[in-house]
């Protein structure tokens, strides 16, 4: 089973290059302004220009309006739109209007949360199972929180999917073994501080997938 990875929340040429060099299949550019991983349109444009064609550029959004999507897609040359907080109907509308592969992030804490993923079956192209952040948290993800992977046992996924939430070098191998994920998404797990990616951690994480 071949496992690929998205390195999310990249904001410097050095860490972007490390992700590409290490074999990441996707890189993530965060367009949610409150996030410490936020990139401006100008920075997104510079970073996107470094990404080869075989690596997909993913834009991360939290309940975005169409103007933000228009500008971010152009600046980041986005191949994929990743949505947090969008309803199934809004997700479907974005997917239709912008004609991009569209991922719906599903915040997971209980099996009921997973059951809600079925509502996106005709609205998105892929589901991203992420850990539900604590009540009152400022961000919808990227906080190093993981959910109980056993919740995925026996679950009939309505779409292709990726695993996110609290992954790092110490647990990604176990996560893949338990969930059979073929695409994993990491952000805080390859950082030295919130929003500060580390070249060595990115390299080690990607090497673990190839082992």
Q: What's the quick description here?
A:
It catalyses: N-(5-phospho-beta-D-ribosyl)anthranilate = 1-(2-carboxyphenylamino)-1-deoxy-D-ribulose 5-phosphate. This protein is an alpha/beta fold.
List the helices and strands and how they pair.
Blueprint: E1 4-7, H1 13-22, E2 26-30, H2 41-48, E3 56-62, H3 66-76, E4 80-84, H4 88-98, E5 101-108, H5 111-115, E6 126-131, E7 161-163, H6 172-179, E8 183-186, E9 191-193, E10 196-197, H7 199-210
Parallel strand pairs: 1-2, 1-8, 2-3, 3-4, 4-5, 5-6, 6-7
Antiparallel strand pairs: 9-10
Helix pairs in contact: 1-7, 2-3
Domain N-(5'phosphoribosyl) anthranilate isomerase (PRAI): 5-207
Keywords: Amino-acid biosynthesis, Aromatic amino acid biosynthesis, Isomerase, Tryptophan biosynthesis
EC number: 5.3.1.24
What would your notes on this structure say?
With 211 residues, the chain is α/β, with parallel strands linked by helices. It has one domain: Aldolase class I (TIM Barrel). Strands 7-6-5-4-3-2-1-8 form an 8-stranded parallel β-sheet. The protein has a two-stranded antiparallel ribbon with strand order 9-10. A hairpin with a 2-residue loop joins strand 9 and strand 10. Helix 2 packs parallel to helix 3. The protein is globular, with a radius of gyration of 16 Å. The model has no long low-confidence stretch (mean pLDDT 94).
């Amino acid at each position: 089973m071949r496992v690929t990875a998205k390195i999310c929340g990249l904001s410097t040429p050095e860490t972007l290059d490390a992700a590409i060099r290490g074999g990441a299949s996707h890189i993530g550019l965060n367009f949610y302004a409150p996030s410490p991983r936020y990139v401006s349109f100008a920075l997104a444009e510079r970073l996107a220009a470094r990404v080869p064609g075989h690596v997909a550029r993913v834009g991360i959004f939290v309940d975005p309006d169409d103007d933000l999507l228009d500008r971010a897609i152009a600046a980041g040359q986005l191949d994929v739109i990743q949505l947090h907080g969008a309803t199934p109907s809004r997700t479907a509308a974005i997917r239709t209007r912008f004609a991009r592969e569209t991922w719906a992030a599903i915040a997971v804490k209980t099996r009921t949360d997973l059951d809600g993923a079925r509502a996106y079956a005709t609205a998105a192209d892929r589901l991203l199972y992420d850990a539900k952040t604590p009540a009152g948290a400022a961000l919808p993800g990227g906080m190093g929180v993981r959910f109980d992977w056993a919740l995925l046992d026996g679950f009939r996924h309505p779409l292709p999917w990726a695993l996110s939430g609290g992954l790092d070098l110490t647990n990604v191998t176990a996560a893949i073994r338990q969930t059979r994920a073929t695409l994993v998404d990491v952000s805080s797990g390859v950082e030295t501080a919130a929003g500060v990616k580390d070249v060595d951690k990115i390299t080690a994480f990607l090497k673990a997938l190839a082992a």
